Structures are given as structure tokens and as C-alpha cells.
Write a sequence for this structure.
DNA sequence: GAACATAGCCTTACGCCGTAAGGTGTCAAG
DNA sequence: CTTGACACCTTACGGCGTAAGGCTATGTTC
């Protein structure tokens, strides 16, 4: 599994970031530590501090790293709503690619250069909606709410997240919380695609209604 | 501020939970620890373990505690879409009342009894939509995505969350990321209400479109 | 009243964590 | 041969969650 025996290739920001991303997906965000990362890299913990002044700086670099992998915006020749539709599906695909890291990315300010570049292009897309500037910004924000909530649920939420230490037994569930018991099958990962699609198409329908209302 | 001098009233689950909720809002989730909580309560850290077997158990109890404070569902006499509308605004109000805790609640399974009761009632509401069962569940889930994303953004996101250690300077922002610079004013807390309202009404419009489509 | 049990709280200690401070080995330039 | 920069390591500190066990006051039982 680890590779500390052979003469080690030198450290570098890139190598550290890649190992960190791998380790986070392997052991989870909570179990990720500088010391474990160092052991995985075959070096001492403090050596990492030669490349990143703190763990926070490293985590910022990870955000930048993964955002850089995001797909670019859909073909500008497509109708606006279709571009938004595809951008949404793209975001979801990008975001769920590193499930254990997403909860971190999603709950931190995205102020790194590559994250800002992505934000900038998304805001540009929404600026082409034809809505007043304030509304286009708010609409982008609202769309982000949905995409963020969906991503978080799929990576860290009801079906995946840390559970209570003593879950409610099945028979109590069925008796006291019948609606939850009946809905549970639809909360499972196999249903994520269908649920996301319904929600996203609903949101898009709302956006078209908003545009129609403003044009009138 | 603290009250350790006087002869201390005895510990209890309730007293510990209240102190924990207060401490979390005072110092933040990351700075919250059993040891600090004990010091605030005027006892030793291990004393808390007499009432909660682990920190995770305590955190679960906190989820239960805050969910129990949630408002009940809107008047059943109202039209369905109006009940959903109000439930959404209620959720947002409830959820942002303890900003520092919400990021924890929002990213953990809600399997405690009171959380399940709340889930159960919300699912009941969506079951009255007239949609097929699978769709009503998925719609609830999608709505949750939006509400969760909005709550997280308002409590831990772009305007509030931990920032990069070296933010991009203003002049670079204006030059390289003009869309972000232009949108920034609308990302500020003062704009949260307007942004949420636009997004939620958009979502509701989408839901009405969905219902209209299914009825046809 | 004596013996015992229990509840409530504390002491000590262990192995994690992030990281401050400073050391060591290597190697290239002067 | 010296110097200094770079890459990496050693040691140590204060914090964390919590296992193991101890102490004391208050019943409970004979």
C-alpha cells in the first residue's frame, strides 16, 4: 500500500497535494492528518511545512487543485437555458468525484484563484440571462444553493454521513415514522440520479417561469 | 461571563446541552471541545462522560435539542403550495438561529427521534402534493437540497465561512475576476433575505409547473 | 448502627493532533 | 575551502478525546 522503502522521489507541492487528495478519499476527512500524510509520503510531518506554512494553506491548495479539474462551460451556441441545464449536471459530476473532500470545499469560501475563475465564468453565464444584474446574481446564488445541497447530501448527508451512534430500530421506524420508513428507499445512493434530475428540472422550470414573468 | 465560583448546581444532560449550544455559538464549532465545555460548566472534562458516553453522543443530543425547537407545520387549511412556501421560510428561520451549529446538523444524518419526527411531518406534507409517491419524496429531497444549501451558505459559506489565508487583493479581483467583483455586494449578509426569497419563489414556481404538467 | 451499593464527579494517563523552534546534511556558487 | 541556501528532520509544547480507575456522599438493606 504505502511506498516508503525505495529511494524516495523528492517532495513537491504537487506531490503533496496529490497524496493528500488520495489519502482524504481513502480514510475520510476526519481521519486525514498531516502526520498520516507524511507517513504516506515517506517523510516526516514537519517536512510538509517546508511547502505549506500550515494545514489550512494545504487545504486551500486542495480546493484550487480540484476546482481546476472542473469542466469548462457548455457550448455558447446553445440556448441559454440549455447551457444552464448542462452546467448544473456538470457541476454535480465534478463535485461528487471527490466525495470526502466536497464537504470541505462546499463549506469554505472559495477565494483561491482557480475557484474565483470558475465563479467568474459561472456569473458570466448567468449575466447572459437577460435579467437585471441583481437578479441574475441572486439566481446564480440560488442555483448554487441547490447544487451545493445536492452535492452535500450525496457525499455527506442522510445516506452517507456520520450516523447517530444508536440508530432507531427498524420496527420503531415503521411504527412511529411511517413516512420516513416509506421514503427511505428513495434516499439511497441508487436513487441519487433520479432525485437530482427531478430537482434540477424543477429548478429550471422555475427559472423559465421567472424569465417569462420578467419579459411580460 | 463564566460562573464557576459559586456553589455549583449539579450537572445534568439538559444543563450540559444548553452550555454546549451556548459555547458553540460563542467560540465556533472548531474551537468547541469537551474540556472547554467542562471549564464553562465548572467541572472536570470527564464528569461530562457520566452523562454522555462520547462527544458524538453529545452532538447527537444537540441535534435532537435544536430540531425540537423547530416550528410546527403551517395551517393545514391553507392551499398545499402555500403550506410548502411557509414551511420553507420556517425552515430557514429555524436553521439560521444557531449558525455555528448548523454546519454540523446539515452534514450529519438526522436519525435522532425528534429529527425523524420532523422529517416524518415534512414527508407527510409532500405526500399531499397529489404527485406519485416516488415523485413526492424526490421533490421533498430536492427542496431540502435548496434549503440546506441556502442555510449552509448563510451560516458557513462565501460570506461567513473560513477564508483563504491569503485572500486575493481587491485590485486583482477587479481586473481578473470582474464578474465576481461586481457580484460581491449581493453575496453579503444584508442580501441574504432577498436572495433566499428569489430562489425559493423560483423553486416554488418550478413545483407548480411540475404539478401542472402531471395533471395534464 | 453497620455493611454495602450506587451516583456523581475527579485524577491520571495514553496516544493522537497541529506546529514552533531549531538542527543537520547536501550541494552549488564564490 | 568557505559560505549560504535549500530540503528535510528532531524535539518539544499544548491541546484534544477518552480509557481506567479512585474518591465521596448518599441512600438501602440487614
Amino acid at each position: 500500500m504505502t511506498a516508503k522503502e525505495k529511494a524516495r522521489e523528492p517532495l513537491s507541492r504537487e506531490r503533496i497535494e496529490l497524496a493528500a487528495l488520495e489519502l482524504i478519499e481513502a480514510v475520510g476527512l476526519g481521519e486525514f492528518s498531516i502526520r498520516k500524510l507524511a507517513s504516506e509520503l515517506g517523510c516526516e510531518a514537519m517536512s510538509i511545512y517546508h511547502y505549506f506554512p500550515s494545514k489550512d494553506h494545504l487545504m486551500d491548495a486542495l480546493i484550487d487543485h480540484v476546482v481546476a479539474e472542473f469542466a469548462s462551460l457548455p457550448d455558447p451556441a446553445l440556448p441559454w437555458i440549455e447551457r444552464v441545464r448542462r452546467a448544473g449536471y456538470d457541476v454535480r459530476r465534478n463535485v461528487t468525484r471527490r466525495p470526502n473532500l466536497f464537504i470541505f470545499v462546499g463549506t469554505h469560501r472559495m477565494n483561491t484563484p482557480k475557484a474565483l475563475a470558475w465563479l467568474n465564468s459561472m456569473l458570466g453565464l448567468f449575466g447572459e440571462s437577460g435579467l437585471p444584474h441583481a437578479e441574475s446574481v441572486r439566481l446564480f446564488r440560488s442555483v448554487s444553493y441547490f447544487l451545493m445541497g445536492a452535492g452535500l447530501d450525496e457525499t455527506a448527508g442522510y445516506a452517507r454521513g456520520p450516523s447517530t451512534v444508536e440508530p432507531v430500530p427498524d420496527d420503531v421506524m415503521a411504527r412511529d415514522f411511517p413516512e420516513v420508513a416509506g421514503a427511505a428507499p428513495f434516499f439511497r445512493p441508487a436513487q441519487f440520479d433520479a432525485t437530482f434530475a427531478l430537482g434540477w428540472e424543477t429548478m429550471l422550470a422555475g427559472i423559465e417561469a421567472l424569465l417569462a414573468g420578467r419579459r411580460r
